Every structure is written in structure tokens, then in C-alpha cells.
């Protein structure tokens, strides 16, 4: 699908979509449990992949009206899948369920689309092997397709923390249902640490005790998953909130209100402070879960995305509108997402007349030297690139056409409907 955005102002009220990160973990935690109702779940391409994996391990996921998933789990004992686990484009699914596969008494095969088959899985495979199972890449390059033969039997392992926090999440979630639990030592500093905070928060909600240690994390074995009263409600997604928030900051003269923005462990809540620092008018009522944002004269700032990699595309687009330089640092790990988001934003914004300086671990956007002009840009098969380029189109001079725009389905299926609802002028057409 191609989407063409015309310059537009936005105003009105929008509700935050449910968190993708929490939904992934909730679906899998419900899989580890007996029966759970997961309310307000995000039903997207990525989370459907996790649901399919739970079913292949022996669970059942039934989607009801209103966004509730009724999940019958495999109660801590995943079966050997009868088919290949296709994780599609979801890196979270692949990493989390690779550890689940290591619990099964047999062999599981996991794969995904071309993009996912290029993403690093090696450290997780090595950790699973160190725990007594067999885990390998079919191409011996640390990338999918993966073959995992369980069950794991060890109780201690070390893993680097600077490639993906999802390795830690995967091992903690699986370790809770082993006999001996798991002591996890980090070999390097943990990147994207708030995502592990999300995991710890969710595990607690499902009655599982996991904790930080002096050199990593630990989870006791022999635990059973079970949400209180058999229900779990997914909070709003601050990664997705970043888009209407940024839209209001650059094109919301009459103001945009975002509902469903209750505080949580999500590191991407940092976007509220970032937009405020750049000069927009922002009021976050944490008790009510509302954010009101109105455009202002934006100024470039320096921002580290060490713990908030998903925010880089949004910050880059804000920087393209701001005066001065916006420097995004500690960004090397952002190159290992659905695409190399550092280069992708530099190149696609460059097509729109934005001057940037790209370094191995940073991206600087020279707002004062740039003039946003409409152009045809590529979504790169990456939902976050698509959505941030759409924001740029709101304030570019002329029409902006985004190719491959259907990839918003990964995390925010209703994104373009929501943007239209705020007053954006856009046209969709099939390729």
C-alpha cells in the first residue's frame, strides 16, 4: 500500500493503542499459565505471531470482541510443535519463544521473513546450548532459521546485554518453570533496560518472582504462572503514543489530547519529556492518563536512545522540524531492528531535503540547514519508519508518498485511520 500525505494541521482526541511489548509478554505468560483473559490486547501482525507460537506449543488463543484474548495455556510444559514456528517479522516473538522451545522435550524449528532472518540470535542460541539443550542456526551465522532441541537442564548462564534485552526476557520467562530456576549473569552493560523492567512488572502480575542481582537477574524455578483472578489488562503503548504526540508537537496548533497514557515501566515514556524539552507545550496528567500537546517553536537537543531505541525515528523527525541540531546518541543497537533505522532515517529524510550526519552510534539532524519537502520515500518494511515519515509529511512542502505503508500493521494497525481522525489529509492506494 502507498499512502500520500498532504500538509495538514491536526487536532482532537485520540486513544493510545495497547502496548505491543506488554501484549507479547502477556500472551506468552498466559501460554505458560493455565487459563487467562488478556484484556485490551494489541492484535497486530507481531502479536498474532506470538499467539500462533503459543498454539503450536499446545495452547489455544481465542480473540473475543472488545480486544480480549481468552488463552488456554500449556501450563508450563510446552509441547513439541507439529509445524515450523513462523515468527513473520517479529523479533520479539522469535527471541521469546526460542527460549520456550528450549523447554520442550524435542525439536522445534523457527523462522521468519527476510528481515527477521537477518537479525542476530547468536547469543541466545549460545546461552541455550550452555544450559544443556541444543540450539543452532541452520546457516551457522547466528540468524534464523533456528533449530532448538530441548529440554534445558542448567541453572546458570551468562549472556551479553548490549545486543538485545529480549534475550534476558526470554530466559527469565522460561527459567521460572524449570526445576532449578536460572541465574543470569550479564557480560556487558544492559541496553534497552526498561524493556526488562516491563518483563519484571508483567511476571509479578502473573505471580512469578524474578529479581535483579548484583551482576544480572535471577528467577526461582518450579513456579506457576497465573494472573490474579485469571485476568490481565494491557496498558497503552508509549512507543505508539510517540506518533500522535509528535504530530501534535509539529502540527497541532489547536492541540491534541492522547488518552490511555497511564504511567508504566515503559522506557518510551521518555518521549513526553523529550517533546517538552524541544519546546512543545505538553501536559501529562498521570492520574487521568491523558497527555495534551500543542505545537511550539522546537529547538534541537541531544538525546540518548540507549534505553529507548524505538524512539529514534520519532526524534529524528522532530529534529527535522526543529531549529538547530538534534543529536541522537548511543544508537548503535538501533541498527539491528527491522531495518538499520539509523541509516534508514538519514536516507529517507535526506530525500525530503533534511541534512544529517550519520556516525556508527549516533545520528545528528541539522534542522536549521534543512527544508522539509514532499517526496516519495520508502517504508523499508519497518512500521516505525513508515509512521515517522508520515509525520514528516504533515509539515513538508508538497505531497509525501510513503511506499510499503501497510507495515504499520506490525504495531499500530489503525495508525492511518487515527491520523485521519485528527484531521490529516491522506490518500491510500494499493500497489
UniProtKB/TrEMBL annotation:
<keyword id="KW-0963">Cytoplasm</keyword>
<feature type="active site" description="Proton acceptor">
    <location>
        <position position="310"/>
    </location>
</feature>
<keyword id="KW-0057">Aromatic amino acid biosynthesis</keyword>
<feature type="binding site">
    <location>
        <position position="20"/>
    </location>
    <ligand>
        <name>3-phosphoshikimate</name>
    </ligand>
</feature>
<dbReference type="GO" id="GO:0009423">
    <property type="term" value="P:chorismate biosynthetic process"/>
</dbReference>
<dbReference type="InterPro" id="IPR013792">
    <property type="entry name" value="RNA3'P_cycl/enolpyr_Trfase_a/b"/>
</dbReference>
<comment type="subunit">
    <text>Monomer.</text>
</comment>
<feature type="binding site">
    <location>
        <position position="21"/>
    </location>
    <ligand>
        <name>3-phosphoshikimate</name>
    </ligand>
</feature>
<feature type="binding site">
    <location>
        <position position="25"/>
    </location>
    <ligand>
        <name>3-phosphoshikimate</name>
    </ligand>
</feature>
<keyword id="KW-0028">Amino-acid biosynthesis</keyword>
<feature type="binding site">
    <location>
        <position position="310"/>
    </location>
    <ligand>
        <name>3-phosphoshikimate</name>
    </ligand>
</feature>
<feature type="binding site">
    <location>
        <position position="166"/>
    </location>
    <ligand>
        <name>3-phosphoshikimate</name>
    </ligand>
</feature>
<dbReference type="Pfam" id="PF00275">
    <property type="entry name" value="EPSP_synthase"/>
</dbReference>
<feature type="domain" description="Enolpyruvate transferase">
    <location>
        <begin position="7"/>
        <end position="419"/>
    </location>
</feature>
<comment type="pathway">
    <text>Metabolic intermediate biosynthesis; chorismate biosynthesis; chorismate from D-erythrose 4-phosphate and phosphoenolpyruvate: step 6/7.</text>
</comment>
<dbReference type="GO" id="GO:0008652">
    <property type="term" value="P:amino acid biosynthetic process"/>
</dbReference>
<keyword id="KW-0808">Transferase</keyword>
<comment type="similarity">
    <text>Belongs to the EPSP synthase family.</text>
</comment>
<dbReference type="InterPro" id="IPR036968">
    <property type="entry name" value="Enolpyruvate_Tfrase_sf"/>
</dbReference>
<dbReference type="InterPro" id="IPR001986">
    <property type="entry name" value="Enolpyruvate_Tfrase_dom"/>
</dbReference>
<feature type="binding site">
    <location>
        <position position="192"/>
    </location>
    <ligand>
        <name>3-phosphoshikimate</name>
    </ligand>
</feature>
<dbReference type="GO" id="GO:0009073">
    <property type="term" value="P:aromatic amino acid family biosynthetic process"/>
</dbReference>
<feature type="binding site">
    <location>
        <position position="91"/>
    </location>
    <ligand>
        <name>phosphoenolpyruvate</name>
    </ligand>
</feature>
<feature type="binding site">
    <location>
        <position position="164"/>
    </location>
    <ligand>
        <name>3-phosphoshikimate</name>
    </ligand>
</feature>
<feature type="binding site">
    <location>
        <position position="119"/>
    </location>
    <ligand>
        <name>phosphoenolpyruvate</name>
    </ligand>
</feature>
<dbReference type="GO" id="GO:0003866">
    <property type="term" value="F:3-phosphoshikimate 1-carboxyvinyltransferase activity"/>
</dbReference>
<dbReference type="InterPro" id="IPR023193">
    <property type="entry name" value="EPSP_synthase_CS"/>
</dbReference>
<feature type="binding site">
    <location>
        <position position="337"/>
    </location>
    <ligand>
        <name>3-phosphoshikimate</name>
    </ligand>
</feature>
<dbReference type="InterPro" id="IPR006264">
    <property type="entry name" value="EPSP_synthase"/>
</dbReference>
<protein>
    <recommendedName>
        <fullName>3-phosphoshikimate 1-carboxyvinyltransferase</fullName>
        <ecNumber>2.5.1.19</ecNumber>
    </recommendedName>
</protein>
<feature type="binding site">
    <location>
        <position position="165"/>
    </location>
    <ligand>
        <name>3-phosphoshikimate</name>
    </ligand>
</feature>
<feature type="binding site">
    <location>
        <position position="166"/>
    </location>
    <ligand>
        <name>phosphoenolpyruvate</name>
    </ligand>
</feature>
<feature type="binding site">
    <location>
        <position position="20"/>
    </location>
    <ligand>
        <name>phosphoenolpyruvate</name>
    </ligand>
</feature>
<feature type="binding site">
    <location>
        <position position="384"/>
    </location>
    <ligand>
        <name>phosphoenolpyruvate</name>
    </ligand>
</feature>
<feature type="binding site">
    <location>
        <position position="341"/>
    </location>
    <ligand>
        <name>phosphoenolpyruvate</name>
    </ligand>
</feature>
<dbReference type="GO" id="GO:0005737">
    <property type="term" value="C:cytoplasm"/>
</dbReference>
<comment type="function">
    <text>Catalyzes the transfer of the enolpyruvyl moiety of phosphoenolpyruvate (PEP) to the 5-hydroxyl of shikimate-3-phosphate (S3P) to produce enolpyruvyl shikimate-3-phosphate and inorganic phosphate.</text>
</comment>
Amino acid at each position: 500500500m502507498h499512502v500520500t500525505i498532504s500538509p495538514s494541521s491536526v487536532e482532537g482526541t485520540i486513544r493510545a493503542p495497547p502496548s505491543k511489548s506488554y501484549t507479547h509478554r502477556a500472551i506468552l505468560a498466559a501460554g505458560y499459565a493455565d487459563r487467562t483473559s488478556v484484556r485490551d490486547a494489541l492484535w497486530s501482525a507481531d502479536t498474532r505471531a506470538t499467539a500462533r507460537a503459543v498454539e503450536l506449543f499446545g495452547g489455544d488463543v481465542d480473540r473475543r470482541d472488545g480486544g480480549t484474548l481468552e488463552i488456554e495455556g500449556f501450563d508450563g510444559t510446552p509441547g513439541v510443535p507439529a509445524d515450523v514456528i513462523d515468527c513473520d517479522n517479529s523479533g520479539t516473538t522469535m527471541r521469546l519463544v526460542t527460549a520456550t522451545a528450549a523447554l520442550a522435550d524435542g525439536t522445534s524449528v523457527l523462522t521468519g521473513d527476510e528481515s527477521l532472518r537477518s537479525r542476530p540470535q547468536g547469543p541466545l542460541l549460545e546461552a541455550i546450548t550452555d544450559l544443556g539443550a541444543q540450539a543452532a542456526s541452520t546457516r551457522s551465522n547466528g540468524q534464523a532459521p533456528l533449530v532448538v532441541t530441548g529440554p534445558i537442564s542448567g541453572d546458570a548462564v551468562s549472556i551479553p546485554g548490549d545486543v538485545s534485552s529480549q534475550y534476558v526476557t526470554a530466559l527469565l520467562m522460561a527459567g521460572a518453570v524449570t526445576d532449578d530456576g536460572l541465574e543470569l549473569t550479564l557480560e556487558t552493560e544492559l541496553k534497552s533496560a526498561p524493556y526488562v523492567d516491563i518483563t519484571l512488572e508483567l511476571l509479578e502480575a502473573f505471580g512469578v518472582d524474578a529479581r535483579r542481582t548484583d551482576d544480572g537477574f535471577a528467577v526461582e524455578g518450579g513456579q506457576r504462572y497465573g494472573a490474579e483472578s485469571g485476568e490481565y489488562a494491557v496498558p497503552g503503548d508509549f512507543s505508539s503514543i510517540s506518533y500522535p504526540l509528535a504530530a501534535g508537537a509539529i502540527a497541532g496548533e489547536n492541540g491534541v489530547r492522547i488518552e490511555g497514557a497511564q504511567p508504566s515501566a515503559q522506557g518510551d515514556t521518555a518521549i513526553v519529556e523529550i517533546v517538552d524539552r524541544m519546546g512543545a507545550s505538553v501536559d501529562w496528567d498521570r492520574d487521568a492518563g491523558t497527555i495534551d500537546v500543542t505545537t511550539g517553536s522546537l529547538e534541537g537537543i541531544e538525546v540518548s536512545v540507549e534505553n529507548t531505541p524505538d524512539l529514534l525515528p520519532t526524534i529524528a523527525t522532530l529534529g527535522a522540524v526543529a531549529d538547530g541540531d538534534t543529536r541522537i546518541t548511543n544508537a548503535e543497537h538501533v541498527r539491528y531492528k527491522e531495518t538499520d533505522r539509523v541509516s534508514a532515517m538519514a536516507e529517507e529524510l535526506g530525500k525530503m531535503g533534511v541534512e544529517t550526519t550519520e556516525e556508527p552510534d549516533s545520528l545528528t539532524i541539522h534542522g536549521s540547514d534543512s527544508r522539509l519537502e514532499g517526496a516519495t520515500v520508502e517504508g523499508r518494511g519497518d512500521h516505525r519508519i513508515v509512521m515517522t515519515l508520515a509525520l514528516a509529511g504533515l509539515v513538508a512542502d508538497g505531497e509525501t508518498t510513503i511506499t510499503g505503508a501497510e507495515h504499520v500493521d506490525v504495531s499500530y494497525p489503525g495508525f492511518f485511520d487515527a491520523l485521519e481522525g485528527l484531521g490529516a489529509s491522506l490518500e491510500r492506494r494499493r500497489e
